[in-house]
Amino acid sequence: MPFALLKHGLTRRRSVPDAFPEPGDLKDSYDIVIVGGGGHGLATAYYLAVDHGITDVAVLERGYIGGGNTGRNTAIIRSNYLTPEGVKFYDESVRLYKDLSNDFDMNILYSERGHYTLAHTDSAIRTMRWRAEVNKHFGIESELVMRDDLQKMVPQLDYSEDVRYPILGALYHAPGAIARHDAVAWGYGAGAARRGVHIHQNTEVTGFEISGANGHAGRVTGVKTNRGTIRAGKVLQAVAGMSGEVAAMAGFRLPLKTVPLQACVSQPLKPFLDAIVVSGSLHVYVSQSSRGELVMGGSTDPYGVYMTRSTLDFKEGLMMHLLELLPFISEVKLLRQWAGMTDMTPDFAPIMGETPVDNYYIDAGWGTWGFKATPVCGKENARMLATGEVGDLIQPFALQRYHDFNLVGEKGAASVGH
Asked: Please, where are the H alpha helices in 267-370?
């Protein structure tokens, strides 16, 4: 153990200030209240302070910082989506991610690995070619590689014909990366707190005060919590799997289904897999962390439930499919398993922007792709809250699109939890 760490743990004097100073009691009012202390909420608070000089902001978190989906994902970052709206949105997020370590003055362990989405059928090959062409149109590095070339790029996989789903090719996305999810939350949160934002943990929102709601949605004026009621000029909801429940408190419904998404990691191994490998047909994805663990996950559970329990059924199914790709890891032991709650929309695209309630904004519907969108969501949410204008990048994700039947249609690039 490093001596400095031991000294830090045993002494009461701290040479380094706490990353999240205790904000004390809730103020009577804030210009902006952000419900949810995950990555998106903290990033919004950070960019409000950094880009717009707005620090009269409260972030309300029911549990602890990063204790929700921000700390329960598999930390994959990419922009090789299917629709023009999705590609442009996530590409901006990738661009922002590359500079976060410098912005925070803290290493978030951002590591470009290359992202390979495997194709096992002729129809999957056509979809990968489609995605590659859309990506290239917007200047994003993606290409379809067939089996012979893929075997040279990722030789660890089983390319034999004696499997249920032989590998025919893959969509190769060179900028695909991973990062330390906790560090992203800590960096945004600590940066916001240093600039005067109040981050209140263990503060549960129990309702909202809505004025002029007779016959219409009304306007949000306050937030009720387990520690009292505070007045709010504007409110942003960013609560991931609890989006439907919190929106109901504000008086409107969201077209969401909340289902668990599970993942697991193996015992640490010597580095052997540099790439991020995904198979939509097998419902599996795997990468190797900087500590040597295999980080593995699959599709969402087939039932809706507000729980983060782990199941044997998921583990059995995942291992069966993973061993079809990497049969030589059959003796590797699992280290831990966990679950998060995903808020899935009908078109597999997020919901961002205005709501029927005036001055109440939404950041929801992230399903299995919320972590990779953290920086761009923070940027766009902050601009929207500061100026009242909904940016071009998030306009396609408006809640109104479900009323207008103008869906985004991102399922072809987000059908497995990655």
From this structure: 312-325
Beta bridge partners of 409: none
Name the residue among 383, 388, 380, 381 with its Cα closest to residue 359.
388
Q: Which two tokens stand for residue 203?
A: 């503060």
Query: How many Å apart are CA 110 and CA 76, to the nearest integer?
Result: 10
Strand partners, 257: 344
Amino acid code (one letter) for 38? G
pLDDT of 38 strictly over 60:
yes
Looking at residue 327, what DSSP letter applies?
A: G
What DSSP string describes 7-20?
A: HHHH-S--SS--SS
**Cα four-point dihedral sign 392, 393, 399, 405:** positive
The number of helices, as runs of H, and strands, as runs of E, in the chain is 11, 19
Least-confidence region, from 39-48, 159-168, 365-374, 408-417: 408-417
DSSP state of 163: S
Average pLDDT over residues 222-234: 97
Distance CA 304, CA 216 (A): 30
What whole-number distance in Å separates Cα of residue 400 and Cα of residue 307?
A: 29
Alpha-carbon span 170 to 82, nearest angstrom: 15
In sequence order, what are the beta bridge partners of 298? 284
Q: Which two tokens stand for residue 216?
A: 């219409």
Q: What is the pLDDT of residues 320-338, one digit of tens each?
A: 999 999 999 999 999 999 9
Homologous superfamily of domain range 24-75+182-255+347-413:
FAD/NAD(P)-binding domain (3.50.50.60)
pTM exceeds 0.85? yes
Work out whether the CA dihedral 278, 279, 285, 290 comes out positive or negative: negative
Alpha-carbon span 364 to 353, nearest angstrom: 9
Rg of the chain taking only CA atoms, in angstroms: 22
8 Å CB contact between 82 and 410: yes
The sign of the torsion formed by the CA atoms of 418, 405, 401, 258 equals negative
Residue-level length of the chain: 418
112-175+258-344 classified as CATH 3.30.9.10: yes
